[in-house]
Records
---
Amino acid sequence: MPGRSEEEVLDAIEARRRRPTRKVLDKQITLSHGAGGKASRDLVEGILLRELRNPLLEPLADSAIVEAGAERLAFTTDSFVVKPIFFPGGDIGELAVNGTVNDLAMSGARPLALSAGLIIEEGLPVKDLERIAASIAAAAEAAGVPVATGDTKVVERGKADGLYVNTSGVGIVEHDLALVPSSIEPGDKVLVSGPIGDHGMAIMIARGELALEVELSSDTAPLNGLVSTLLEATDGVRCLRDPTRGGLATVLAELALSAEVGITIEESELPIRPEVAGACEILGIDPIYVANEGKLIAVVSSDAADAALAALRSHPLGREAAIIAEVSAEPPGLVTLDTTFGGSRVVDMLAGDPLPRIC
Amino acid sequence: MPGRSEEEVLDAIEARRRRPTRKVLDKQITLSHGAGGKASRDLVEGILLRELRNPLLEPLADSAIVEAGAERLAFTTDSFVVKPIFFPGGDIGELAVNGTVNDLAMSGARPLALSAGLIIEEGLPVKDLERIAASIAAAAEAAGVPVATGDTKVVERGKADGLYVNTSGVGIVEHDLALVPSSIEPGDKVLVSGPIGDHGMAIMIARGELALEVELSSDTAPLNGLVSTLLEATDGVRCLRDPTRGGLATVLAELALSAEVGITIEESELPIRPEVAGACEILGIDPIYVANEGKLIAVVSSDAADAALAALRSHPLGREAAIIAEVSAEPPGLVTLDTTFGGSRVVDMLAGDPLPRIC
């Protein structure tokens, strides 16, 4: 597949540059606004950031960095509306704990405490709630982070979908690295800690709406240990992200845009399980847009790439890590993918929502 | 109305003492589990605390106290499912900001940052979301606390009720007071910062299900300034609580139980607006069980009571503060109310849910 023309590329960049001041033109919220891609970004930038603008929120990072007396804290929040609430490899409780631990870890913070806010639908079996509470407890234990505070609300039958879970987290930043997109430089390498697309495809298959017989499990896992291992091994880490909603493609597109760099993905280097690749092919979904819940993307300096790869592979959650992309000065804001067949194409953020309610 | 017999009182105390190990016997979650009263406590203690038990969570206070390097943090979370999302005196956004600011303030912390997690129903008018985002921004500005991090999710039409909002908050504790129930001692006085029941009754009337023509507004307000004023005026403050779900009665019942003291409310001292009292009478609801969103209860040492009252009254949000109750050694765990007519009755926690989805 050939890349776009230069004119198209320049148009695409210009369109992106304009986006931060774009208004939401829809009259009503749609599922696309929740998918983590373009419409989500429009929603956040066009409505929420427009109103709430402040220096802590503005970076729109996985965690905000907050000064607290002598300490620097990371603070993050995430609501989980995954459907179904139990799925192969985990459930909404474990997902919520890991998701928030990971958002803290991506800012290089050591997680200190989590909150859990449950919105429960009247009629939820008590045994399901017990199972999820046990799962939250086990995940918190595995990540080494206590659930310090919580809240429960109950809404009438039909007004939620079993259970929604919000987890927020507080961590402490104990290093001097600026793990932000603006630290990214041309020549940097992009690593992924393992095979992509497992979580999203596992959820799709768990819904039972597809006539696919594949055994797939969510990759939900706490990445704080993996991040510690990486940061101990090298000080060449520029930026960390966990590619959840919108997948690898959307995260890299956001990084390219924020850092004003180009990123070229080498398709042949992307780790993808054959089952995931097969399911994606049948469904016509590109795995680079599929959500992950136990993977990280690390942008590292060129000379730190080998040490970073070795560090990731030394950890149980990074055994299949790979160097998948390279950063360039040009064209700023654009991600391209060099395909296995020798072509090249532009990789945009997720548009629309092929996979609703994935987290 | 005469009080219960001594035997009944002792039975009630014994029943409460047994509760922390009680299991949830219901097979399904009911609206009562979300009302903030007895069933909520059973849910939290019987399922969540049982699984998640750890020293940070165990006090079940409005905020957890978390050590972060050299600093002591307060950390809290609250989900808001109020119905309708716009009501006289505020909306779900303002309520969420103030609710979390207040939970931090009740632990004597200075709020540093808030998070906002929105679960939006597909089809919500964009202009409603814009209005609520503006309201969150204005409330955060009024409280002097930035919204540092956020998250949005969208669920299908019919799977939420317009909008649910979770706010979490981080604050810093800059004093050495132990503002916990165990600091409460016999002889202490209980103050309330103003008229009770406004929020709950305003919501009830806003639903339009009642044939009442009363102009009532929610009292939603950020109490961090009021708490600062109080703590600067006296070091005799034992414990602070904001009487939200379950109202004044449930908060005092919980304090009596936790501190193992008796609390006697003087009904004639309770500040209640005539409109609220009237609406409550017509509906057969006791205003001491009705939610407040801009009031605090302060337990203070006897000799600090006058200074505390003066401090509260010096602040715009505490003009109508009053001393409403006294703490005694006996009977431990029990709240009684001396009625205006010279009788006395036992005040228990809220049972059932006369006012669902109030916050």
---
Amino acid sequence: MTATPKLIRGNLIWNKEKTALTTCERGWIYIESGVIRAILSPEEGETIAQRGVAVEDYGERILIPGLVDLHVHAPQYAFRGTGMDLELLDWLEAYTFPEESRYDDSDYGERAYTQFADGLKNSPTTRACIFATIHVPATLRLMELLEERGLGAYVGKVSMDRDCPDSLRETEGISALRDWLTRWKESPLVCPILTPRFVPSCTEELLEGLGTLQREFRLPVQSHLSENPAEVELVKALCPEAETYGHAYARHGLFGGEGCPTIMAHCVYSSPKEIELLEKNQVFVAHCPQSNANLASGIAPVREYLRRGIPVGLGTDVAAGHSLSMFRAVTDAIQVSKLRWRLVDPKLPPLSFPEALWLATRGGGAFFGQVGLLAPGFDCDLLVLDDHDLPAPRKLSLEERLERLFYLGGDQTVFAKYVRGRRVK
Amino acid sequence: MTATPKLIRGNLIWNKEKTALTTCERGWIYIESGVIRAILSPEEGETIAQRGVAVEDYGERILIPGLVDLHVHAPQYAFRGTGMDLELLDWLEAYTFPEESRYDDSDYGERAYTQFADGLKNSPTTRACIFATIHVPATLRLMELLEERGLGAYVGKVSMDRDCPDSLRETEGISALRDWLTRWKESPLVCPILTPRFVPSCTEELLEGLGTLQREFRLPVQSHLSENPAEVELVKALCPEAETYGHAYARHGLFGGEGCPTIMAHCVYSSPKEIELLEKNQVFVAHCPQSNANLASGIAPVREYLRRGIPVGLGTDVAAGHSLSMFRAVTDAIQVSKLRWRLVDPKLPPLSFPEALWLATRGGGAFFGQVGLLAPGFDCDLLVLDDHDLPAPRKLSLEERLERLFYLGGDQTVFAKYVRGRRVK
């Protein structure tokens, strides 16, 4: 990040509103210290460029805010796209826990996390909220790898101490977390986040300790909530005194509210009481449509969350989601919302493309602060998209080009990528 | 295609059974005149290779039968990935009919169909059942373009004469079809297929004429069936005397049975009576999961069709499906089957990866004859898949590599492709 002002030019598209796209053909973004100072029309930008401000001109390419992955498991990247035949609890036992156990070996961690960090760098994601494993050294290394690549991330050393293999059981309690927090240096873009795996994996003592730590360090929190019917039943049996699954976090101060920004992934089976609490505490819902299909979990009522003003973003949830691409998260969110409307609840209309794009930009970006819009005061997180590999027999509008890029494009369409004003791809 | 025998070597995987994968590490395929004569173990193949038979060795790459796209609209390729906000009937009017009208202009057709044919050539599809438009010259040109690329296809000049723009209304009745059939030369791999668009677009007279032509030329038939609730209601209103939508085709001899191989796309809302007729007449169901999500149609009960022994294959249904990739059709079929199991009918278990692969190979391949297996007597339709761009931190099994290729791979993983023994990519 440099304080020197800069102009970036191209075809700008973003969500000034949640439900509609704003476009600015051959517009300019004026940035300083990594922050957007102004969005300028072609004429306005020309005038400033003539004053000698540095220009990066991307021609007819499309510039949009960077995409935010609100839920992804770095250690599971290694087996993404395999083992897609089980539901959540069996899938954790058969595939996930054995894989995560390997990260005790730092050579394996180095190899696997380098592949993950490179994958994320090449993807359309600029910021991500990431689960690591319980292992402190591997988690610290993952954070370094992300920082080296200039990506923005919250990374969580996972906390878990019951109903899991011994190799993944936290034996040192909260002290391992303190160790991790102490050893991570300050970093402008990569920060720690408290990460209880989910209620079934955490004893009351562990959750209590996490709550204490949260209040001491004012750290954000991420976890899973009401993903699968069997999981919801399990939590009921484990915590009979908690009113809902969400309350089992909330009673330890790990469920949003003042000074405790929190993300809960999935929320497919949240009861009315739980939804009330999500709303009251302004907990972020990480909607993970691909994962919810692959593990036969179901489809979350995103439209209802949006209507209630609950903050919502999208997550790939690799490796229950097989693809690290947020393009897929956007189009999958639209597709499953259509199926939910048709098969479950005709009162909740499907998501439109602008709405799903909003979820992936400003929706999740809000967890990171002033992120996810092309507007003054916002971090300059940008994707430069190139669709020359997607021929068409006639001229398409900017909006058509963008929709097509999301439906058809892979990492190769991400020509350049900026995080807080710095080009990282 | 050459009569000279040849050996092709690599890691072979296919469905000897519908529900399980068979693998042969570093196996050999012995072919002659484009047809597989034998599948050979490493040792058996070595012996024959030493006799001087030509060898194409693909090393550690994976070889599987070619994928069959049982339902795709060539003229819609031009707008794939755009306009994903409407249901079927409105979508046809707003996007599809205006686009298809352009194919009256042969320059446009040339440009657009060349892009489609190149797209299909680069994709994992070896054979396809294709809808063109009503226009004879453009349809003939499409057939040539496919033939030049060595692909296998049934191509249909579309028949429609009601409830559509004038520019797409067949005015010459059956004589235009005769003209088309007469002008298409014999071709070993690209053949005509009768293609009434769907009942709402066809008068009784047109369907009657198509039935007569079918019996005269013994041509196969393709159309759409019970895709969307509003469409099903419309057909009820248009054909009150037909017992089901399917019967509206059947009474003209356009719905399977002896000497009339037929594909019906979708079958999402087929009633028990219609399903009985599909079974009795052994009509092929082209299951198009991506399309059915994009147009909010629903999810077809594929498991039920398989249990009844109804022939089923997969279709991309571009452009209601946005992706031309049969990899996506396979993984989408698995995903929506899981959602259907969860949300609609717990008595119909989801599709497994081997089952979905079977649908895309032998399932659809059966429409083309001896196609879709690695077995003696079958056409040598092959994909050579390369996964070196998909790194993993540890060694994966062949089955894991293949599953991952389908979930994560794009066209670039199709290293080579054979149709009836001839390398076409």
